[in-house]
Design goal:
With about 280 residues, the chain is α/β, with parallel strands linked by helices. The chain folds into two domains: about 170 residues, Rossmann fold (3-Layer(aba) Sandwich); about 90 residues, 2-Layer Sandwich (Pantoate--beta-alanine Ligase, Chain: A,domain 2). About 40% of the residues lie in helices and about 20% in strands. The protein has eleven helices and nine strands. The strands form two sheets. The chain has a six-stranded parallel beta sheet with strand order 1-4-3-2-5-6, with helices on both faces. The chain has a three-stranded antiparallel beta sheet with strand order 7-8-9, covered by helices on one side. Helix 2 links the parallel strand 2 and strand 3. Helix 7 packs across helix 8. The longest helix has 16 residues. The radius of gyration is 19 Å and the shape is globular. It binds adenosine monophosphate. Adenosine monophosphate binds next to helix 2 and strand 5.
């Protein structure tokens, strides 16, 4: 596996592969790779000839008071993991190489950014859409794999690719969890032992809510209140950012549950802001 540091080098390499008729796969990550990322790499590996894994803590998707400076990293560990999961290239640029002086162009998708994480993190998806577009222009992938853990991100990228006619197939990968149900995340490293012990209740609340909906509950506010009460009881130190039910594709709030719905939550536990979601077929 080759480690590539500059955008120019990655683009030249990938354009050469494309000229040879190779099918290129891309898995964008922020590193500190765990089993969730590994599932994405394995899926992508099975769908392409040449696999590019990017490891880049993208500064533009962090707000001024967020954890950019504290975000965990492990370059050597990531290199070993990417190689073991079949990457041909690990792309690990410096921020200055991705955003030159005077960078002034952004990709935004305002409608899908309106709710959930977009509401609490105003510049987040602008940064995500811009860096993912740049990665698409550099790696020229035929296929790119993203996790359902960041469901809103996946929905926005699907829409962006459709709206901008970007010739890449977007594949969504189910959430990989710890044995106790906690969604794997690089940010789980921020949790203390006490916080870690309660974090699986995020998932449990969602499963109970799904059970209520499957049993016939159709009132959105009742489901949201139920999840909030569950979290107040089972994660008393948690600060709820949002508990919402949205259309899985448009991320618009639903008034009544009468079709497939996504229940999505973000809860701050100590230093970690944790996300989870569940797709509920009705
Ligand atoms: P990140 O490094 O956290 O920005 O994540 C990079 C990619 O991995 C994104 O597409 C995430 O949705 C995906 N991902 C992160 N954690 C998980 C997980 N537990 N299961 C599935 N995909 C994940």
């Amino acid at each position: 596996m080759q480690v590539v540091k500059t955008p120019e080098e990655l683009q030249a390499l990938c354009l050469a592969w494309k000229r040879e008729g190779r099918r290129v796969g891309l898995v964008p990550t922020m590193g500190y790779l765990h089993e969730g990322h590994m599932a994405l790499m394995d899926r992508a590996r099975s769908l392409c000839d040449k696999l590019v894994v990017s490891v880049f803590v993208n500064p533009t998707q962090f707000g001024p008071d967020e954890d950019l400076d504290k975000y965990p990293h492990d370059f050597e560990g990531d290199r070993a993991t990417a190689e073991a999961h079949g990457a041909d290239v690990m792309f690990a640029p410096e921020p200055g190489a991705m955003y030159g002086p005077g960078h002034a162009t952004w990709v935004v998708s305002p409608e899908l950014e309106r709710n959930l994480c977009g509401a609490s993190r105003p510049v987040h998806f602008r940064g995500v859409c811009t860096v993912v577009t740049k990665l698409f222009m550099l790696a020229q992938p035929d296929v790119a794999v993203f996790g359902e853990k960041d469901w809103q991100q996946l929905a926005i990228i699907r829409r962006m690719v459709r709206d901008l006619n970007i010739p890449v197939e977007i594949v969504g990968q189910p959430i990989v969890r710890e044995a106790d149900g906690l969604a794997k995340s690089s940010r789980n490293a921020y949790l203390t032992a006490d916080e870690r012990a309660l974090a699986p209740n995020l998932r449990k609340g969602l499963l109970k809510a799904a059970g209520r909906i499957e049993a016939g509950e159709r009132d959105v506010e009742a489901v949201k209140a139920f999840v909030r009460e569950e979290y107040a009881r089972t994660i008393p130190m948690g600060e709820i950012d949002y508990v919402d039910l949205v259309d899985p594709e448009t991320i618009a709030f639903v008034d009544r549950i009468d079709g497939p719905v996504l229940a999505a939550v973000a809860v701050r536990i100590g230093k970690a802001r944790l996300l989870d979601n569940i797709f509920i077929k009705v």
